[in-house]
Amino acid sequence: MAAISVSNLTYAYNSFSPPSLVDINIALTPGSRTILIGANGAGKSTLLQLLAGKKLVGDAADVRIKDQDVFRNSPEGVTFLGTEWAMNPVVRGDIGVAEFLDSVGGYRHKERRDRLLDLLDVDLDWRMHKISDGERRRVQLCFGLMAPWDILLLDEVTVDLDVMVRDDLLKFLKADSEARGATILYATHIFDGLNDFPTHIAHMRFGTFVTLPTSWPLPDRSNALTTTISATTALYNIALQWLKADREYSRELERQGKKVPRGARKDDVRSLPSCG
Questions:
Q1: Cβ contact 24:9 at 8 Å
Q2: Is 116 helix (H, G, I), strand (E, B) or coil?
Q3: Is the pTM of this model over 0.90?
């Protein structure tokens, strides 16, 4: 049984916009850790939100976690952590971190909560309305991870963390996934230090998968023995290669008139207003 399975998924935010996701079909095995790679607008966040049951889809699509329909029979043990949390006015109110974590059940998971408090360097005396975005992100991670999860959906949640805390967090998540056979799907634009984290990587472009979840490290196709790419070939380099291909693909669509051009427009010459 797949930990996450998606079939025939096409999704548009409204009837007059093009689909954000087109014919998505994937299956992730239990215990896998998959990195989603793609440019802004590739559909990564939309896919994660749908998997978390935050948006509804039509009857043709089949979206399941632990073989349960995420919209009609929401499975337990699913944690979604995204960037919008830090902007929620509730978590910017005048409340202490200790009280906030207790209000969402931190006392029931004290051992994991305390481990995360140490790992994320969180001060229980912080007031939520007085801390920085990076500190608020640490509280979010403690809040989201203190209850054991079976499926973890992460959308750019390390963007505000310093290098050391991010590294400690990734080590914790990897060890937790391995110890409990838990599954992680992680969309990020930060690839430094990720080489040893994923079991799979995937590439999205304009709402579709260019590369379906594929075992990492990738096989070296140039070697007759099909050895794996060495550790010196970083995930960063693979991501950069894929993103450059995305940009060239996009520019080709612009040259064909199938996509509105971005960037400077050479024919857009405007004179400065007269000073008098």
A1: yes
A2: helix
A3: no
